[in-house]
Amino acid sequence: MKPGRYWNLVRMRVRSLLRRGRVEAELEKELRFHVEQEMEANVAAGMAPAEARYAALRRLGGVARIKEECRDMRRTEYLESVGQDLRYGARTLARSPGFTAVVLLTLALSIGANSAIFSVIDGVLLKPLPYPNASRIVRLFFSSHDYPRFPLNPFDFRDLRARSHLFQALAAFTRSDVQLSGSGEPVRLAGFRVTAGYFRVLGVAPARGREFNAKDELPGNGHVVILSDRTWRDKFSADPGIVGRKLTLDSQPYTVVGVMPPGTEHPGNEYHPLPYGDSVDAWRPFTFDGNPSQRGYHIMEAIGRLKPGVTPAEAQAEMNTLITEIGREHGGYNGWHMLVVPLYKVIVGPDVRLLLVLLGAVGLVLLIACGNVANLLLARATSRQREIAVRAALGAPRSRLVRQMLTESLLIALVGAGLGIVLAVGGVRALVSLLPAGFPRAGSIHVNGAVLGFTLLIAVVTGLVFGLAPALEAAHADPQRGLRGGGHGSTAGGGRVRLRNALVLAEVSLASVLLIGAGLMLRSFVNLLRTNPGFKPEHVLTASLSLPDTDYKTSTAIAQFYDQLTRRLAVLPGVKAAGAGTDLPWTGYDENVGGFTIQGETPPPGEDFHARYHTATPEYFRALGTPLVRGRFFTEGDNHNAPKVLIINEAMARLDWQHQDAVGGRLTFSDTPKAGDWITVVGVVADVKDRPDANGAEPAFWWPVLQAPFPIPQMSVALRSDSGAAQLANELRGEVHRLDPALAVADVRLMDRIADAGVATARFASFLVGLFAALAIILAAIGIYGVMSYSVNQRTHEFGLRVALGAQRRDVLRLVISQGAKLTLAGAVVGVAGALALSRVMTHLIYGVRAADPLTFTAVFLIVTVVGLGACYVPARRATAADPMKALRAE
Amino acid sequence: MGKPSDLLQGTLDLLILKTLSLEPSHGWAIAKRIEQVSHDALQITQGALYPALHRLEHQGWIRSEWRTTETGREAKFYKLTKAGRVQLEKELAQWDRLSGAVGLVLRMV
Fold first, then answer.
1. Considering its fold, how many domains does chain A have in total?
2. With an 8 Å Cβ cutoff, is A41 touching chain B?
């Protein structure tokens, strides 16, 4: 076809479609002209005018049919009739507002829920990370069976970096907050020390100035800092001359060398973690101080950008070869290897399963909603049988009837989806505010084009799914039967009843699956709340302090500061106990130390003794409410002159002292211990897990602050009060500044808030899945109710006859209820079986309860049965009201 | 209402195109001309004529415009397009082949 002709075709079609009125008028005029010509010809041939006109009209035949055929020839009738179907559908829906409202509400809720959850999935999982070629960024960990993601030793990292060939850039970073003073109250900046090329790995260049280079890594250098855009704006009023400006950080002079652009997202980290996102204030270079042959301490988290075409597996193989080589040069790393994981997986990995379960849950709700709407449409199709039969009898082709029904379904689905989007916009806001704090990428969750596209897609799919059954019904409409009276005596065909029953059964079973899922999540949440955390979070105020090493050079200086501070805090009115320790429960764990020797015990074969280490002031455990299991707490007498002592947790006592009582046991960190190197265990305290949902506590011990073997400047203060701990915040600040006005008091938080954040994910999951399950069981109840009332309506006549023949009302009641009960029970059984089959999905999301928890399964079975019977009861009551006289008269 | 002689659809298209190849004219004139030329052997019903005209127009073989007739009335005139002329040639050739073939069969069998 030539383009010219093709264009002509399009022009004609568009004209016929858009200017339908004009085209119709022209056709009318053309036909009238024809009749007049014919008439004139007839008159010319000698007919009387009236006769001539009649003859002309007769000759023309059916004007309407000609018009219809001309319209067909224009080939736009398809599109026109869609418009007709839409208008017709809209009129039909408007005529039954109750039906329409129920259907639209059902769809709006379920489609809206799907869109909202999809928004979260899109923002968190589907959107690429905000780094160029983010798929090539990987995280590197030192890894063993017990510690799959352990930090690296700085010198090991430096060797790996020098010897590797598969990375475009390789960098390491370690958390290092810093205190900014100079103007007003000192503040703590969240920071990292990073090796040269760190930002090259991320693919982000500084907006001003430069990034760190190899020179900055040399010991003695490193007094330079790169600020985040936020810090530059908030703390330095976006000073354009910031690069080169001198600052005081940790009481030392630093020079600003760069400012990062806005949106420089921290990739997240594991060791003293800061969450993923815009969470870092300042970066300083990591300097390789110390002795490169001592490789015992592990503080670096590594990140790398692979060369194009290199897979993480190849990089991991290279790293493993290199670490073995390096290990051999430095005494061996038995049982340790390297782990290379794509950054994306590290960031969103832990939440993928949760999000997919939520998506599955809303998907089930949508399926149930589809079942319900299909059922309602089927019921309505029965009452529309007559209308459809009339249309079929008047010559409407089957395809047209099917299309009419599908158009109506799609119209319903699209309007429902439109309302759903409105709900989703609100729902997404609510969801984001419900997300646990620090949920990765929460900031990128929005209702956007992708979400709208997804909603449109599910609207069309659901419209087709729930419209299919009624449409096929229409296709098999029998004009004969439909026209023949209808109403009395006619019951739905067996096939239709079976279809409707199957739909309800499916709904009940899907709702049971969701309820079981929700039940398991609720039980794990309750388990988390009920588990003894090993501390009492109520009425405890906490804050974090970091003493600059220029002013507090020795452990003694640090210990003296915390000793003085806790004494002063302890006498504040309302304070019951004031302590300080190197970390707080559930805020990320502290360092590990390994390779110590325990007198009279040997480590398991192939391993060595290891434990998390901390320091604590005498009142630390009392302030947190961590109970003493055996022995004693520290006292002020446990100072540098006294014999060395330790407090350990129950996990360490259980794991490491297999043969003797831990209290009184001795250990040493020296390979060649002298008498003074042995440390005695004086107390055992209750276990506190790293995270509330961890399987068990890690072995851990505490040095008294006054006996810490090396300076640990950063500690957390805990204040236990009678009540109203929050009011103590200002007094805490005041006491700190009375001792040292240059100190920043950071992270002032209530312990119960910290404890609450620890169970936030479980609460979020159980709340949402519970919400969806509630929606599901309500929809399923509506489904049962709908199918039963329809069936009762159909059988009113039969019930009337039964009563007339002597059946008792309760017999009728039993008849109807047993029919509903059969459906419900079958649905519940299928649902329970389905939930058992799906239980593997749940195992990682639940805590302290088996995926096949008999209590949950039984409870859900009972709930579903009761709800199902309840939904049958109202229609059943109506059945008992069937009037025997009416039934007899009608016979 | 019986139709005097049913025309195959393709045949009516051919007749219309052929008639219009002489000069542009309106529907009534086309029908009259075919009837006259065929000595009333071919009766064109309006029910067939107008849908055919609309179809041909939509296929781009004829084009329409409103003009005034000699008697001063407004009528919709159809005229052959370039593509329609090509189509007419094709259909004429096809018709010759078909009628020749049918004639051959009728004579031989």
1. 4
2. yes
Give the phi and the psi of residue A852 in degrees, each rounded to 5: -105, 45
Pick from A2, A36, A74: which is nearest to B54 by CB? A74
- Cβ proximity of A579 and A633 under 8 Å: no
When pLDDT is averaged across residues A74-79 and rounded to a whole number, the result is 60
Mean of pLDDT values over A602-614: 80
How many other β-carbons are positioned within 10 Å of the β-carbon of residue B52?
23
Residue A481 belongs to domain spanning: 350-530+760-890
ipTM of the complex: 0.82
To the nearest 10 degrees (0 to 180), the angle between helices A154-163 and A312-329 is 120
Using the Cβ of A26 and the Cβ atoms of chain B, whether some distance falls under 8 Å is answered with yes
- Quick check: is A700 in a domain? yes
Tell me which residue in B51, B60, B75 faces A33 most closely, judged by beta carbons: B75
Distance CA(A631)–CA(A43), nearest Å, equals 129
Element (DSSP H or E) covering residue A649: strand A645-649
d(CA B48, CA A66): 8
* Pairing verdict, β A282-285 and A191-194: parallel
Judgement on whether residues A357 and A409 belong to the same structural domain of the protein: yes
Residue in the structure block whose two tokens are 């009395």: A488
Question: What size, in residues, is chain A?
Answer: 891
Contact between B74 and A33 using a beta-carbon 8 Å cutoff: yes
Contact between B47 and A69 using a beta-carbon 8 Å cutoff = yes
Q: Is residue A544 domain-resident?
A: no
Q: Say yes or no: A455 and A587 in one domain.
A: no
Question: Looking at residue A592, what is its pLDDT?
Answer: 67
Q: What length does chain B have?
A: 109
pLDDT of residue B3: 38
Comparing A70-74, A106-110, A856-860, the range with the smallest average pLDDT is: A70-74
**Judgement on whether residues A460 and A362 belong to the same structural domain of the protein:** yes
Same domain, A703 and A782: no
Give residue B5's pLDDT. 41
Of A802, A806, A777, give the one whose Cα is nearest residue A792: A802
Q: Is A513 in the same domain as A467?
A: yes
A130 in a structural domain:
no
Residue A80 inside a domain? The answer is no
Residue where one domain finishes, among candidates A706, A741, A776: A741
A561 Cβ contact list (under 8 Å, min separation 6): A547, A552, A739, A740
Beta strands A137-143 and A301-306: pairing type? Answer: antiparallel
On whether both A50 and A17 belong to a single domain, the answer is yes
Q: Comparing C-alpha atoms, which of A171, A182, A4, A300 is closest to residue A742?
A: A182
User: What secondary structure does DSSP assign to A109-142, as a single string?
Assistant: HHHHHHHHHHHHHIIIIISPPSSTTGGGEEEEEE
- Chain A CA closest to residue B74: A33
Tokens of A816: 């109807």
Q: Where are the domains of chain B?
A: 9-108
Closest CA to A343 of A148, A133, A491: A133
In this structure, the answer to whether residues A651 and A709 fall within a common structural domain is: yes
The chain A residue lying nearest B43, using CA atoms, is A59
| CATH topology for the B9-108 domain | Arc Repressor Mutant, subunit A (1.10.10)
Q: Tell me the one-letter amino acid at A488.
A: H
Residues A318 and A215 in one domain: yes
Q: Is B26 on the interface with A (CB under 8 A)?
A: yes
Main-chain phi, psi angles of A761, to 5 degrees:
-65, -45
A137 or A483: which leads in pLDDT = A137
| Residue among A185, A860, A769, A777 nearest A524 (CA) | A769
**How confident is the model over B47-54, as a mean pLDDT?**
84
Tell me the pLDDT tens digit for each residue of A227-281.
999 999 888 888 898 888 888 888 888 999 999 998 888 888 887 778 788 889 9
A61: pLDDT confidence band, cut at 50, 70 and 90? low
Tokens (6 digits) for A99? 């039906």
pTM surpassing 0.90? no
Q: Which residue of B has its CA nearest to A73?
A: B55
